[in-house]
Amino acid sequence: MSRAADRLRLLINHLDPSPASIRSEPTFAQTSTYSHPQRLRYTFETDLLTPEQRVFYEENGFLLIKNLVSEEDIDRFRKAFERICRQEVKVPGLVVMRDVAIAKSEFVPDQKAVSKLQDFQEDPELFRYCSLPQILKYVECFTGPNIMAMHTMLINKPPDAGKKTSRHPMHQDLHYFPFRPADRIVCSWTAMEKVTRQNGCLVVLPGTHQGTLQEHDYPEWEGGVNKMYHGVRGYDPQQPRVHLEMEKGDTVFFHPLLIHGSGMNQTQGFRKAISCHYASGDCYYIDVKGTTQENIEHEALDIAVRKYGVEGDVHFKDVWMIRGRLVQGERVSL
């Protein structure tokens, strides 16, 4: 038995029956106090995560690792992003998203701001992020050894134009995914520069990953909402939240049921981050018809038909089968 496993066994077997508390390690975004869980369901023992880190994720649904991605790698990802924005390269399947309220950008020739690149799995340089060994060793703690990269994004949050459209509604990522189980899915999200409350850092509601998938739709915001930016219906803004301020290279891993979003970018610069949603290769597709996910299925299929020019019977899972790429182990079901 490894030393880490011994510590974990000791921790689990000797929990006080009365509510205990745990203080997060310096690698986490914010120091908070939470009660111990009775069992660990969200992570695997790989000798990487400490018992304290596993318990923290169990209670909160996220884990922040400092300085995980090198400055050199991040600068290479930024250059690849700029080449795409200047239309110097064409990437098959890539979706370029623009903020509905921005009239100019730092790179795009047509003067419309690129707020996000989505589905960059066919770009060799950007997809290299999804295969970084230091990322995958953490991902394996949540998914197991068979790892699929399912959803890729480079977010370029623009300065808010006064319409508050640079906000991202509070949501759960599982709303977009027709595959399960949720506990074998994880997002890695890496800051490409210093991320603060001023430029719109991630905001999370700790512990909400232990709940269920909630109903989502476009929020009724006066300034409008960007395409596909659904939010939790009936969201209570008074719920306790944590702002994840991060340095360049810091990476947060979080559960797909964790409610999260981001505020306005109140600076003059663009706030960049790169992310990938991973799933176990053993996950399986589900039919979302008749569920709260039916609205996002219709929207995603409409986009896919225009994007790929396909005709006939197209299913939600077909869209995700095209997006998914194996990065480690075997592609079993996805």
From TrEMBL:
Single GO biological process annotation from the record: fatty acid alpha-oxidation
One annotated GO molecular function: L-ascorbic acid binding
Alphabetized InterPro entries for the sequence: PhyH (IPR047128), Phytyl_CoA_dOase-like (IPR008775)
Alphabetized UniProt keyword annotations: Dioxygenase, Iron, Metal-binding, Oxidoreductase, Vitamin C
Reactions mediated catalytically: eicosanoyl-CoA + 2-oxoglutarate + O2 = 2-hydroxyeicosanoyl-CoA + succinate + CO2; 3-methylnonanoyl-CoA + 2-oxoglutarate + O2 = 2-hydroxy-3-methylnonanoyl-CoA + succinate + CO2; heptadecanoyl-CoA + 2-oxoglutarate + O2 = 2-hydroxyheptadecanoyl-CoA + succinate + CO2; octanoyl-CoA + 2-oxoglutarate + O2 = 2-hydroxyoctanoyl-CoA + succinate + CO2
Essential cofactor(s): ATP; L-ascorbate; Fe cation
Pathway(s) annotated for this protein in UniProt: Lipid metabolism; fatty acid metabolism
Any one Gene Ontology cellular component term annotated for this protein: peroxisome
E.C. numbers: 1.14.11.18
The name this protein goes by in its record: Phytanoyl-CoA dioxygenase, peroxisomal
Organism encoding this protein: Amphiprion ocellaris
Gene: PHYH
